[in-house]
Amino acid sequence: MTPRTALTIAGSDSGGGAGIQADLRTFFANGVHGLVALTAVTVQNSLGVQGFTEIPAEVVCAQIKAVASDMGVDAAKTGMLATAEIIRSVAKTLDELGLDFPLVVDPVAASMTGHALLREDALEAIRTELFPRATLITPNLDEVRLLTGVSVVDPASQRTAADALLEFGSRWVLVKGGHMTGTEDCVDLLSDGREYLELTGPRYLTENTHGGGDTLASAITASLAKGTSVPDAVAAGKKFIERCVAESYSLGAGVGPVSPFWVLDR
Ligand code: PLP
Question: 65-101 burial string, b = 16+ CB within 10 Å, else e?
Fold first, then answer.
């Protein structure tokens, strides 16, 4: 039987832990066929990102059009988009395609080791060009601060941040609480401005969380591709990433990746 398709518009991680590598294996593990529009090639290992080269915007868009026109896209996600020009071109291409599928925008700005994955003027383009077209945006707390100026420290400020982010025009926002300190659990807040759903899960004590944000966003995208509602897709994605974090491993001298290997034993 032909599986549903999910498209990732994102960068490559030479270390194989994040980026399209994480997206494709997460799509596979969640039963959907992965399609790729590559935006950038990063040079990185467990110690960090040493640099990146972006793909020309017209080549990024040509990849999207090629797969959408022939194979069809049931859901898409964006990850590292590198430049404002790529972001604007992707937005235009999605409009040309009619954007009749769910779009998850993970506003990737920097790696957890602090290396920029976006050129400077690009964050504004994500906010104005992609958020209004997004079904769901999935910022972490650093990205929330960059995008809204709100520092999330507790449930009240997490709700303030969700409201501020929804002003940019996405249908739903998931304010991920994974980087919040002082809480025993990991509480994410999902909202469409009417509902405020707190998703609580265990916090695992591991340094090896490379690729965690990508893996969560692509697991959610896979569920959306299968027709699941946003709240159910986010709940399923959170369960998936929890297991991947619980089974993460060391590789190299720095930060190891979250692991999807457990799906092989299912
Ligand atoms: N490299 C690429 C290509 C990415 O897309 C991302 C995150 O989206 C990262 C690196 C950073 O991953 P992390 O913050 O989990 O280290």
Answer: eebbeeeebbbbbbbbbbbbbbbbbbbebbeeeebeb
Distance 246 CA to ligand 1 centre (A): 19
Stated pTM of the model:
0.97
Percent of the chain with pLDDT over 90: 89
Parse the chain into domains and list their residue ranges: 5-258
Check pocket membership of 210 for ligand 1, CB cut-off 6 A. yes
Separation CA 174–CA 77 (nearest Å):
14
For ligand 1, the distance from its centroid to the CA atom of residue 2, given in whole angstroms, is 30
Which atom of ligand 1 lies nearest, measured to the CA of 108? 8
The model's pLDDT over 137-152, given as tens digits with 9 standing for 90+, comes to 999 999 999 999 999 9
Check the CA dihedral 122-124-129-134 and report its sign: positive
CA of 111 to the centre of ligand 1 (A): 5
- Architecture of the domain delimited by 5-258: 3-Layer(aba) Sandwich (3.40)
